Amino acid sequence: MDRFDAMSVFLKVVETGSLSAASRQLRATLPTVSRKVGELERHLGVQLLIRTSRRIELTDAGRGYAVAARRILDQVQEAEQTAVGEYREPRGELTITAPSLFGELHVLPVASAFLAAHPKINLRLRLTDKVVNIVEEHVHVAVRIGELADSALIARRVGATRSITCASPEYLRALGEPSMPEDIIERDGVTFSGFIPATWLYSRGDIQIVAEPRARVAVNSPAAAVVAAKAGLGITRVLDYQIAAELRAGTLTPLLEAFELPPLPIHLVFPEQERLPLKVRAFLDWVAPRLQARLAAAGIGNSPASADLPPR
User: Which domains are assigned to the chain?
Assistant: First the structure.
């Protein structure tokens, strides 16, 4: 039995929550994954997993072994990285995660130029609107939008993004433009869940206001919300980088700008390490200033022109 291989398979089962999910990610057959975990349990003389019809659960011994196995494999990986020179020059596989649309529009163009300048680095870009545990999933750098929770992660701020309420000019011509947050309560809305809070919040001085339209259309992506709003189906609320092209073209009109909450920060975050691989340091040093300049040039996160608040 290859113990390192068996450890890796066992940890993949723990990470994915089932033998079948692990087999898909490892591109191995289900019997092979089950056999390797079984061999590991027989070698140790303890049961690591409790198998149920839907998922697996760790035994007490399994929980302790998972922590130890992860530490051992991390040490092996670091030794291999040192041996092949990842601490002497930027090289090797680099895993980055970012929100889907933000990654497509802004991270990938900057990362493409980075790869051209660093031919020995291979990029793995994971675009997802879910918050990834970068330590558990071995991600080197993540783009995070919004206030950061206290953690052991190191953060570099690269910009900010505004939460914008908007609608199509046709919709506004037919029904009029709201002047205060309360005006949208009886309007049709296009809603989706994303980085901005599910509750539609606005600010009047030091007071926060909750005002939401009727959810005539509910979608699960900002791109779909933009399409629906452009079609005149209602008022939506998105981040400014998601509608930069529509704002320039005039196909969506920003609303209630005087009541906007402060912009959400955008950070590059990465785990604190005693020795940061050169590929990660090179990526951060290259991408951070270029991404910051790109967002600034596009006006992402810029505050709207100052306006007096309408009377209450």
Answer: 3-84 (1.10.10.10), 92-159+266-297 (3.40.190.10), 163-259 (3.40.190.290)
